[in-house]
Design goal:
The chain has a domain of 300 residues: Alkaline Phosphatase, subunit A (3-Layer(aba) Sandwich). The strands form 3 sheets. Strands 1, 4, 8, 9, 10, 11, 12, 13, 14 and 15 form a 10-stranded mixed β-sheet that branches. Strands 5-7-6 form a 3-stranded antiparallel β-sheet. The chain has a two-stranded antiparallel sheet with strand order 2-3. With 439 residues, the protein is of the alpha/beta class.
Length: 439
């Protein structure tokens, strides 16, 4: 009997590189989740450090149902979404929120100082970076002195502190955002989603909820292509996802495939023409925020979104680089907030930044080296203005860096409380949420 010839894609119609916006994201969960590590659930596998080796739904390698924690937050508001913009590399807090008229700042910073007339003046002490004027006009909260008690200046170490919401180097098994997802999980195809990273996202590592990390919004375009070959491909992925047995890693991959198909099916009902589209800046960050806005309109069930945005390790040429990066943020977030306001999602969507550390107060030639405390920016249901305590420029820490005045766990506790989650359920110790920051 002659085997049938597999259907092949037509090169003239296949568009793997950059599909149109109508393709939306394909959705991306599809492409990333179809591989092991695309979706994460519970325990680590020693054969694959920092990958999760339990299948979606908590089934163990032996086929038993693994024990996963139940949510203890039954009253969490069901319509709220947190969007975390991670400023990768270490954002310079003193350049973002500048003490003007401060002789010490001018002595330490030199070329990194913006002229007072260029700043967005907040009060008689501080001015906001000139590029962030649009966000300030829409409503912006700035938390000062955010950092850790660790004096470690390694990107990798401090990224882990922030990813896991740690208080020491003894990191929890799950990420802080993943623990939020566990409390917020109601069985949606995805509760947490990261767009723009490199695959595995420790921030979203969860014990129960399904989360995904996507390299870009279009990573799964082939899950929406109407061609016959792609339909055959999708059916094959679906069949593999329904198989049983095999190794733990194989089960993990199949769990990811099932979640990908389910999420792609949910998005199939989207209007291809996206008549409700809003104009965003033509940047990657702008595109990511436009995708998030569409997800919110779709009521997809996603409660936590993580958007990494790199380039903040400004050892050299800081003025030009940092100005450009903040301009990108201002344009994308301003458009996102305007989009949310027109669709009625502005009061239920909180945008919050993180960064592994700030920069050293003293400039290094035309840049700045790794520091400690920085600032966090928040938009949405916030009380605008300065919050927290401004670190001293004269009383520095043992590394001559700004000392932390707002511990990262207190900052994170504030985000948890906004969801109605008891911070002690998702953070170690007894963190103290910031009063008056959120509404």
């Amino acid at each position: 009997m002659t085997e049938p010839t597999p259907i092949q894609p037509d090169p003239a119609t296949a568009t793997p590189n950059q599909p149109s916006r109508r393709k939306f994201l394909g959705l991306a969960a599809a492409g990333a989740a179809a591989t092991a590590g695309g979706l994460w659930t519970t325990r680590s596998d020693p054969r694959w450090p920092e990958a999760i080796a339990e299948p979606s739904g908590g089934q163990s390698a032996e086929g038993d149902i693994a024990s996963v924690p139940e949510s203890k937050t039954p009253s969490a508001p069901s319509n709220r979404t947190l969007v975390v913009l991670s400023l990768v590399g270490g954002n310079d807090g003193l350049a973002t929120l500048q003490p003007y008229g401060n002789g010490r700042a001018h002595t330490l910073r030199g070329e990194l100082i913006h002229a007072e007339e260029d700043l967005v003046i907040l009060d008689d002490q501080m001015g906001l970076h000139p590029a962030l004027g649009g966000m300030w006009d829409q409503g912006l909260a700035i938390v000062e002195g955010v950092g850790t008690k660790s004096n470690n200046l390694s990107h990798f170490e401090m990224e882990r502190w922030w990813a896991h919401g740690a208080t020491t180097s003894d990191y929890p098994d799950t990420g802080f955002l993943g623990r939020l997802c566990d409390e917020l999980d109601t069985g949606a195809p995805l509760t947490g989603l990261s767009i723009g990273g490199m695959g595995y996202v420790p921030e979203l590592q969860a014990a129960k909820a399904t989360t995904a990390g996507l390299a870009d919004p279009y990573a799964g375009w082939y899950f929406r292509d109407e061609g016959e070959w792609f339909a055959q491909f999708r059916q094959s992925v679906s069949d593999m996802g329904g198989a049983t047995g095999g190794s733990t890693l194989a089960q993990t991959a199949r769990g990811g495939q099932r979640g990908a198909i389910e999420f792609a099916d949910l998005l199939a009902e989207f209007d291809e023409e996206d008549e409700d589209a809003f104009e965003y800046p033509g940047s990657e960050l702008g595109e990511s925020f436009s995708v998030v806005a569409r997800l919110l309109r779709s009521e997809s069930g996603i409660r936590v979104v993580h958007l990494p945005f790199g380039g903040f390790d400004t050892h050299d040429d800081q003025r030009g680089t940092h100005d450009y990066l903040l301009e990108q943020i201002n344009g994308a977030v301003s458009a996102f907030q305007a989009d949310l306001a027109r669709t009625g999602h502005d009061s239920s969507t909180l945008i919050a930044t993180t960064s592994e550390f700030g920069r050293r107060p003293k400039a290094s030639a035309y840049g700045s080296d790794h520091g400690n405390a920085s600032v966090a920016l928040l938009a949405g249901p916030i009380n605008p203005g300065r919050h927290g305590e401004s670190p001293s420029l004269t009383n520095l820490d043992q590394n001559d860096n700004l000392a932390t005045t707002t511990p990262l766990v207190d900052y994170y506790a504030t985000l948890a409380t906004w969801f109605g989650i008891d911070p002690t359920l998702v953070l170690e110790g007894n963190p103290t949420p910031l009063d008056g920051l959120l509404t």
